[in-house]
Write a structure and sequence with these properties.
Blueprint: H1 3-21, E1 33-34, H2 37-55, E2 62-70, E3 84-93, H3 99-112, E4 116-122, E5 129-134, E6 141-146, E7 152-158, E8 162-163
Length: 170
């Protein structure tokens, strides 16, 4: 897969996940956490590296990038008070014959670790799929999906909605 194709895939993954993220891991009952963006990014990277360790790729993963965006409400409204979430993307090489087994291994690992499994599915062709989980302790969400062609999995980590230091939620 070319670098341009990987970058395009990372952008598409970000958009899809952002559209389905809603409150980005926060629930209405949870208080708004205050955290600097660099700390939120560091935690996202820790989650990504933990997933990469479970996957144990034969080749080095390709970082697709990371960044932040304003939180979005259920109705599509954009937060104007500074609240944000971070996203962290990787393309992790996984051979076609290991794709589904990798997703199953991640699902089982996350279950054992106490994560909330948000979705797990194998696509109708039996060759691809996705798994997503939420770490209840810190609210971060992790999504892993097979790529097309099936040479890698796309790994995305999203923080919950956060308030930067010095801002007041309102």
């Amino acid at each position: 897969m070319t670098k341009a194709a990987r970058n395009w895939l990372a952008v598409v993954t970000c958009v899809v996940a952002a559209l389905t993220c809603g409150g980005c891991g926060s629930t209405k009952d949870e208080p708004m956490r205050v955290m600097a963006e660099d700390e939120a990014t560091r935690i996202a990277e820790q989650h990504a590296q933990a997933v990469i360790k479970v996957i144990a790729p034969a080749q080095k993963p390709d970082p697709g990038g990371s960044g932040s965006a304003p939180c979005e409400g259920r109705g599509g409204e954009i937060a104007k008070d500074g609240r944000y979430y971070v996203q962290h993307i990787y393309q992790v090489p996984v051979s076609p014959d290991r794709q589904i087994a990798t997703l199953e291994r991640l699902r089982d690992h996350w279950r054992q670790a106490g994560y909330e499994i948000q979705r797990f599915r194998v696509f109708p062709d039996g060759k691809g799929g996705e798994v997503a989980a939420r770490n209840a302790q810190d609210g971060y969400q992790i999504s892993v999906e097979t790529t097309d062609p099936p040479t890698a999995v796309s790994l995305a980590v999203y923080s919950p909605c956060l308030m930067p230091p010095g801002k007041v939620s309102g």
